[in-house]
Amino acid sequence: MSVVRWADGVPEIDAAVAARAMKFSVEYFLRQMQRGAIRGRVERGTGDDEGRHRMSFRHRDRELVMVVDDDGRIISQELIMAAPKPHWRQP
């Protein structure tokens, strides 16, 4: 099943797919994207990875990494959770 469409070389992913993979509701995911709190990055594979694209979405303590093929099918995905960074306050 294709979850990513390519429009003029730019990937478009269904927000429900990315939100579900990040363990967010679609509404929360879209709101955070609009605020700029979720950042995305796309990398095109070269050499042995030709025809693959790595899409990453980062929000606070989590990063979703998806590898998709040229047809927009997910090859792999991983949700990486990091320990939250403490915010120190000065007395």
Automatic annotation (TrEMBL):
<dbReference type="InterPro" id="IPR045389">
    <property type="entry name" value="DUF6522"/>
</dbReference>
<protein>
    <submittedName>
        <fullName>Uncharacterized protein</fullName>
    </submittedName>
</protein>
<dbReference type="Pfam" id="PF20132">
    <property type="entry name" value="DUF6522"/>
</dbReference>
